[in-house]
Amino acid sequence: MNPRVTVWNEFRHEKSDPEVAAIYPDGIHATIARALGEHGIEARTATLDEPEHGLTDEVLDATDVLVWWGHLAHEEVSDEIVDRVQNRVLNGMGLIVLHSGHGSKLFRRLMGTTCNLKWRESTDTEVLWNLAPGHPITAGLGEHFIIDQEEMYGEFFEVPTPETLVFVSWFTGGEVFRSGACYTRGTGKIFYFRPGHETYPTYHHADVQRVIANAARWAAPEYSAVQKFGNPGPIMVG
Amino acid sequence: MNPRVTVWNEFRHEKSDPEVAAIYPDGIHATIARALGEHGIEARTATLDEPEHGLTDEVLDATDVLVWWGHLAHEEVSDEIVDRVQNRVLNGMGLIVLHSGHGSKLFRRLMGTTCNLKWRESTDTEVLWNLAPGHPITAGLGEHFIIDQEEMYGEFFEVPTPETLVFVSWFTGGEVFRSGACYTRGTGKIFYFRPGHETYPTYHHADVQRVIANAARWAAPEYSAVQKFGNPGPIMVG
Amino acid sequence: MNPRVTVWNEFRHEKSDPEVAAIYPDGIHATIARALGEHGIEARTATLDEPEHGLTDEVLDATDVLVWWGHLAHEEVSDEIVDRVQNRVLNGMGLIVLHSGHGSKLFRRLMGTTCNLKWRESTDTEVLWNLAPGHPITAGLGEHFIIDQEEMYGEFFEVPTPETLVFVSWFTGGEVFRSGACYTRGTGKIFYFRPGHETYPTYHHADVQRVIANAARWAAPEYSAVQKFGNPGPIMVG
Amino acid sequence: MNPRVTVWNEFRHEKSDPEVAAIYPDGIHATIARALGEHGIEARTATLDEPEHGLTDEVLDATDVLVWWGHLAHEEVSDEIVDRVQNRVLNGMGLIVLHSGHGSKLFRRLMGTTCNLKWRESTDTEVLWNLAPGHPITAGLGEHFIIDQEEMYGEFFEVPTPETLVFVSWFTGGEVFRSGACYTRGTGKIFYFRPGHETYPTYHHADVQRVIANAARWAAPEYSAVQKFGNPGPIMVG
Q1: Per-residue pLDDT tens for D98-157?
Q2: Who among C129, C161, C175 is closest to B155 (CB)?
Q3: Interface-testing mutation among D163, D222, D227, with chain C (most C C-beta atoms within 10 A)
Q4: Cβ atoms within 10 A of the Cβ of C22, count?
Q5: In chain D, at which end, N or C, are there fewer CB atoms within 10 A of the end residue's CB?
Q6: What is the pLDDT of residues A113-172, one digit of tens each?
Q7: Contacts of D58 by beta carbon, 8 Å cutoff, 6+ apart
Q8: Which CATH code for domain A5-115+180-219?
């Protein structure tokens, strides 16, 4: 069964930078949502400048997995919405954080660290190595795939050790990066996926699209009835 | 899509011990295969005394996930079949090891340790606590379930640290045990699940059956094209 | 080389509750600091009602490992001090969080989850099982130790999966709990240790004291020169 | 306190290949033992062609940590000695496996997988990135170090997921590799460290030497009294 996905984008670069608009005329979110559709997954979109950033309770009630792209405007996301989304994740909603979303309030909140890293906008090629063959997120991929030009992200990446390290990237300049990383927080599954600088056509890349679709299926919630707190009487009586 | 499961049993207790035969008249394997069927998963069976222990290449070609129950006769399993099954697991076949299967050649081979533990056949009750709500193996379960009478298994359990610790058991006598443990070896997924002493009707327990069915779906192989060795030329040329 | 430890306590129960004062006349912090001293580790103390909660930059400059006990007054800890201590941990200071400290702003911030759990003040006995023999935190311990009376904490404990699960507790009432849990955040090491309800003499227990002393040595910082962010030029030039 | 280390080497390349002999005139083992000495750690050596491969019970009784280098002659190591060393590791002896030791009987036995990988002898430069700042094995290192020429090892490396991933290597040809990996098996600690092809002066590299010395201290046994199996009576009586 396919999850119901909401793709969230701050949607600012596309409006102010013609170079980005040329690559993503309807916004990064539209490109990703369309790609999910081609993988058989229905996706709606939401953006920063909508009321409640497009993330009303009604929208989240109908969202199994949220995809997040942000960069320029992390601080414009209201704490109230961050609280709301964090709470949803802890209670089972899947979350896929893309590229510069590493610096979002939401991701930093869920990780407990700065999520800082090194970066360089240059002429690097990126090779993503599949370190988790057999994992649902790598289904249908080969042992590596190449993105001809991308922004470099380098270690040390200040995040908790991933529960599963799915990809490690190689960059021309000599750097490596943990580019695909799985976490569980509460009952929610989180996947961080590195590629996607706004000035490159990364979200048009077939393998990148496949990874996001696979991750959406992996991150969809499973339901078990676990109460997380309380003050119960004993189960066993001696 | 449901995996094709083969349930393997050494099938000796049931023939020699009337107490066990009363609980599992057709063998533990038949009870488990029937339960999988009720969960919509087709399962065949194989037993120690069949030619090649019932695990021919033809059978394994049609097996996505193998379930393993053994106890008295671990040493009668031929090294050739252990090699064959280990190789299948490393190349993607799922494996569910039940109860006393912790001492099997196959599980010890895949773990690299003795897999020793403490045990006691007595009047213990077992409470299994769900430590991985949100994980596919606990779908549909509550926060714990109880087996009124079971053999005690106690720590220290000499296995590698599980990648995911799904259940921890409580026993009346004061012991705890890591009762549900996930591993990846090569591209294959392995789940160890503790309950199932032959003198108790454990495999008739609805929650135990649900766990095995969930684990079979979780352990089913995902296909990606990864070559594990070789002597390739460079991908990037400076 | 022994770390320099600061033991922080909110120090409220001891002033208002004669039952607690009878067990810890100088405060929980004093008992723990004294025990560390007996293990050869010098420890100072700090408490909530001191200026800056006793955690000035001068104090933290001289602290390799911080021990934290809080319960009633989590919300009285100022966000500024939480920011300061979190930043120290991410840059290498060790942190040992005790018992009800699971609900502190600091621990919740570093974990990214609610850190909720179940609890019961009753007549439970606690058996702590050593699941990490060979780990520095269990040096000198046996396979388990018993606390005759303690508050029960039960799963599900909403924290990220521990990097190392050191102890699991058994309680009379049928519950289990992940009672000793290691994390790394940034370059800092964190150990959560469950025991220590204020109405029981838990911090006078020899094995509890040994665990805290071992954990202090384990959590002491190691120094390597890693820059966590920046915008560097390439290392390799093709 | 410093561990007592034994450095084991198959010591064949150095006798048959003048190029290797020029780099390691007394053998790889002698170079490593000397480097450990310069880090304040006393090390003895043992080699394949000694009786019992130099790994008698007397030698192992005086060994806290064993370092292993092998390549050409993995199959000449007797199963009896592999059994003996595996048993020592499961009971607390540290083990550092270097470079082509990934293919040794001992390492494959402890991992439960083939430990296969990709390789290329060419003109690659290796950059090792520190992914575990704050870990004892990286004490005193910077964020990366460079080996000007080395054999390439590439993913997929068929080993269990490391408990701690300490280093990831970058190679000129576009590959990455998990070059420093920690495991616990039984009560023993294991560190796999990639560099060290016999035709390059890798073990004369100051950072490589520092890593091996740090790893020896990290892998030294901690003593706790845990019985791994048995059939005990209950601890708690209801």
Answers
A1: 999 999 999 999 999 999 999 999 989 999 999 999 999 999 999 999 999 999 999 999
A2: C129
A3: D222
A4: 11
A5: N
A6: 999 999 999 989 999 999 999 999 999 999 999 999 999 999 999 999 999 999 999 999
A7: none
A8: 3.40.50.880
Query: Do B178 and C131 count as a contact with CB atoms less than 8 A apart?
Result: yes
| CATH pick for C5-112+180-219 out of 1.10.472.10, 3.90.180.10, 3.40.50.880, 3.40.50.2300 | 3.40.50.880
Contacts (Cβ under 8 Å, ≥6 apart) of A182? A137, A162, A163, A164, A165, A166, A189, A190, A191, A218
Q: Please report residues of A whose CB lies closer than 8 A to that of B130.
A: 224, 226
Q: Which residues does chain A have within 8 Å of residue D145's beta carbon, measured at their own beta carbons?
A: none
Å between B131 CA and nearest CA of chain A: 9
CB–CB contact B155 C175 (8 Å): no
User: Is residue D231 over pLDDT 90?
Assistant: no
Helical axes A28-38 vs A206-219, angle rounded to 10° = 80
Q: Which tokens hold the place of D152?
A: 């390439």
pLDDT at A222 over 90: no
Tokens read off for D93: 């002896």
A106 sits in which H/E element? helix A105-111
pTM, two decimal places: 0.97
Domain B5-113+178-219 has CATH 3.40.50.880: yes
Contact C130 B156 (CB under 8 A): yes
Amino acid identity, position A39: H
pLDDT at B225 > cutoff 70: no
